[in-house]
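$ ./design --mode recover --in tokens.txt
reading tokens...
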């Protein structure tokens, strides 16, 4: 089975469009979404519509989906994230708001093959930035392979019997074969707001038969996205950061 793995789209229609047009040449069987479909960007309804149309789809919620749909009030959000979330809540159609509200909490298993979560399988709102957090997650879970999002940073953590290793991905196309007997935490990076210093949209594909993970970086119309953010009256840093991938 070939999986298309998307995370942290954040209402960025141009980035999602570029990713979907790229994968037209790379057939997939199932789309898996790791949360944060909305928040930050100016096209919440368009991106929700686009993801809802991807079938078959397994999707879980992210922290921004919770605040944008009104499940939570965003007490822990910074000022800009909260402003964008409340703007998004006002803009979402009834149907899209309802659909976001119904997104399940991770972790969940996909086809008994791998687990998915937003932040970590232990806490959907917690971050895995480095090996300490990764090791902690490995200790408290038993999933052999977990795909996670939330940090907007494409990376693979591997736990073998004697060591934990960080595998940094190399743009624009990175391929890595998962080895037997090693446990993995894989972050496909963020489609709509990368934060690894590379502004290109990031996503993954996973072939469960060959156990090959590929992480791709795709250019998109960053300027058009920035202009929409400014035109919507959203905070300027949300537009600026897209150009530098921070
Ligand atoms: Fe996010």
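writing sequence...
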């Amino acid at each position: 089975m070939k999986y298309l793995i998307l995370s942290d789209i954040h209402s960025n229609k141009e980035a999602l469009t570029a990713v979907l047009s790229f994968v037209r040449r790379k057939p997939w069987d199932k789309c898996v979404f790791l949360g944060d479909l909305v928040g930050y960007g100016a096209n919440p309804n368009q991106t929700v519509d686009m993801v809802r149309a991807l079938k078959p789809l397994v999707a879980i919620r992210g922290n921004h989906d919770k605040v944008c749909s009104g499940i939570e009030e965003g007490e822990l959000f910074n000022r800009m994230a909260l402003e964008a979330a409340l703007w998004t809540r006002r803009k979402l159609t009834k149907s899209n708001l309802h659909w976001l509200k119904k997104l399940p909490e991770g972790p969940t298993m996909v086809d008994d093959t791998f687990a998915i979560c937003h932040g970590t399988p232990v806490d959907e709102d917690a971050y895995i930035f480095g090996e300490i957090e990764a090791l902690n997650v490995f200790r408290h879970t038993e999933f052999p392979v977990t795909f996670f999002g939330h940090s907007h940073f494409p990376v693979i953590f591997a736990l073998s019997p004697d060591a934990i290793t960080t595998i940094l991905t190399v743009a624009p196309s990175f391929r890595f074969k998962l080895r037997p007997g090693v446990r993995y935490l894989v972050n496909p990076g963020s489609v709509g707001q990368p934060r690894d210093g590379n502004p290109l949209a990031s996503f993954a594909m996973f072939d469960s038969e060959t156990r090959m993970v590929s992480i791709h970086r795709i250019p998109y119309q960053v300027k058009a996205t920035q202009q929409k953010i400014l035109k919507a009256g959203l905070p300027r840093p949300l537009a600026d950061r897209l150009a530098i991938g921070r």
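exit 0
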